[in-house]
Amino acid sequence: MDSFNFNTTPGIRFGNHSFLDNLEEIRKCLGDRILFITDKGIINLGLANNAISSLEDASELVVIFDEVEPDPSLSTLEKAIAIGQSSKCTGVIGYGGGSSMDVAKLTSLILGSSENLDSVWGVGAACGPRLPLVLVPTTAGTGSEVTPVSIITVGENEKRGVSSSIILPDLAILDPLLTIGLPQKITAATGVDAMVHAIEAYSSKNKNNNPISRMYAIEALKLLIGSIDKAVFHGDNEKARANMLKGSMFAGIAFANSPVAAVHALAYPIGGIFHIPHGLSNALILPYVLRFNQLDQKAAHAYADLCDYIWPLEDPKKGIQYKSSFFIEKLAELSERLGLEARLRDVGIPKESCEKMAKESMKQTRLLVNNPRCITEKDSLDIYLAAW
Question: Which of these, 46, 331, 338, 364, has the minimum number of CB atoms within 10 Å of its CB?
Answer without folding.
Answer: 46
